[in-house]
Structures are given as structure tokens and as C-alpha cells.
Write a structure and sequence with these properties.
Two copies of one chain form a homodimer. Chain A has five helices and six strands, in the order ααααββββββα. Chain A is an alpha+beta fold. In chain A, a hairpin with a 5-residue loop joins strand 3 and strand 4. The longest helix of chain A has 13 residues. Chain A starts with 5 loop residues before the first helix and ends with a helix. Strand 6 of chain A pairs antiparallel with strand 6 of chain B. Chain A binds a DNA duplex through helix 4.
Chain lengths: ~140, ~140
DNA sequence: CTGCAAAATTAGACATTTTCTTTATTGCCT
DNA sequence: AGGCAATAAAGAAAATGTCTAATTTTGCAG
């Protein structure tokens, strides 16, 4: 599998690559921290001083619509985003707030498709809430 | 399995059953519509005119903490609640906004437990997003 | 190159949801 | 009855996300 540029990645997903959209997409690809819209805005406004919050929100919505990114609703307070589109699960540590990726070969992940009752699922999300290994260690030390 | 009263249900979960807490819990048990905190407040304030929104929020948080109810973060705009604690999946219809329950025998549901990496999951949520059977029919008719 | 139309971006006001703080009330125990 | 701790109320406040209107940029045609 060849790594493609962010520019081409956007084109592949039919997103016109403006400076702002490239910056948001690159941020998602380089930081696997599942950032919120606000975190992205705060980081990028240093490089693009005229950037507006609205643009970040618009861009993220567009990226998700075009399948270039994923929206996570695991945290009750904030929607956050993930550049990884391949199916995988997520764990939210309720102690530190970190969101972890759990590859598909490590946990069961349900697939989209037709559900009982005749509903059609376009996407499936598997979310765990609990305590991460780091926080468990820290708590054991106390 | 014997059906127990809401009063005893709260006691079982170590929640002191005040009038307000009973009302919130009963609302959840009688309406399987996955209401938001505000929907619960609006409905209950008719019966309990002095009810405050803060109390509804506090009560819901307490119920979730004690395992008497479940918090769903499937909808990006609103957190909603569910009295069913047994594991089951949920579908959000992105056309009409309804949240459906999907019993555990109809879809794969992951269980809490120890995850790869040493994380410990206390709860697992499986969320589908798509279009419900009703909306599919309606769209086909157009 | 110049001008036009469409798309994208900006800024800030706005709306909504949730939390915080303070005060009042309730219920229980002696 | 009096006092204490837990619960609830009210409104202010914070945080998050959305809307509107205006400006800027882009792509294209002449």
C-alpha cells in the first residue's frame, strides 16, 4: 500500500483542497489524539491567523460526509475526530479522558449492513468506557 | 423474574428514593424513547412544578453512576438516557432522529472486561447510524 | 489580462446544553 | 422540638456548536 499525500487524499474523497482543509486534514493525520474541533482550531490558528472556528466546523463536517474522517461521540462533552476510517473500536478512559484506538483484530467490531427490523446501518461504532492501563497503574500506586 | 417497584429498584441501586428521583426513574422506565435531560424535565415539571433542571441533571448522573440507567452518546447533539441496563445495541436514524433498541440476540454486542493493552472496560456500547425501516419506506414512496 | 459568478472563508453574534454557586428545604436522629 | 446532613431549587455562568451577513478567493470565459 502506497502512502499518498494529504492533497491527493482529499481529492480522492472529492474534497477541494484549500489551505484550510489541508491543514485540518493534516492535523488529523499527524495527531492521533482524537482532537475536538476546538483543539484543532487552537493549534491551527497559530499557522493560519485568520482561520475561523466556523471553517474548522464546516471542514470537519465535510470530511466526515465525504468519508475522509470519522466523528466520535464517545465523550459526552465533546464530539471528537479521527483520521482513521478503517473500522476499529475506541476506549474512553474516564479517569484521564484519553481516547484510545483498538485495532479491529483485537476486539470484535460490528459492520454496517441491514439490521433486524429492516433498518439499514451506514456505520457502526463500538465504544468502551473504562480505565486505561496507565491510570490503573497510577491508581494501584496510591 | 419478578417485576419490582421503581422504589425498590432505586434502593437496590443505593439511590435514596426522593420524589424527584422516583419521577425521573419512572419516566425512564415508562417511556422507551431515549429522552434527553431536557425532555424529561419538560414532562415532569407539569407534575412537579418546583422541579429544577439541575435536579434532573444531578439525578441522571446519579442513576448512571449507580448503574440504574444508561447514558447514550449516540447523538452528536444530545446525550440521552435509557432505563434498560442489560446489554443491547442502538441505532440512530439520521433521517428522523429516533433511537432504536436492538436486542442482544439480534446483533453482536461486545461485553465489558479486560482489553488488549491492559485497559479495563466497565461498559461497552455498540452504536449504529443509518436509516430506520420507516424512513426507508417513506423515501421509497417519494 | 479583466471581469463575473460561484465557492469558500471570516467575524461575531447567537442559541443551546450543561454546570456551578448559593440559598432554601426536606427528612431523620436524638 | 432542635440540629444536622442530604437534597433540591433558582439563576447565573460556562462551554460548545450554529447562524448570518459580509468579504475574500477561486475558476473560468471573454
Amino acid at each position: 500500500m502506497t502512502k499518498i499525500s494529504t492533497y491527493d487524499y482529499l481529492l480522492e474523497h472529492r474534497v477541494k483542497p484549500s489551505v484550510q482543509r489541508l491543514a485540518v486534514m493534516e492535523y488529523l493525520q499527524q495527531h492521533h489524539t482524537h482532537p475536538t474541533a476546538d483543539e484543532i482550531y487552537v493549534h491551527l490558528v497559530n499557522k493560519i491567523p485568520t482561520l475561523s472556528k466556523t471553517t474548522v466546523y464546516n471542514t470537519l463536517r465535510l470530511l466526515v460526509e465525504q468519508g475522509a474522517a470519522r466523528m466520535l461521540t464517545i465523550d459526552e462533552h465533546n464530539v471528537c475526530f479521527d483520521a482513521m476510517v478503517e473500522p476499529h473500536a475506541h476506549l474512553l478512559c474516564t479517569a484521564c479522558g484519553t481516547v484510545y484506538d483498538l485495532p479491529v483484530d483485537q476486539v470484535p467490531v460490528a459492520a454496517p449492513g441491514v439490521l433486524p427490523g429492516g433498518h439499514v446501518a451506514r456505520e457502526a461504532s463500538l465504544y468502551y468506557r473504562g480505565t486505561c492501563a496507565d491510570c490503573l497503574r497510577r491508581q494501584a500506586g496510591n
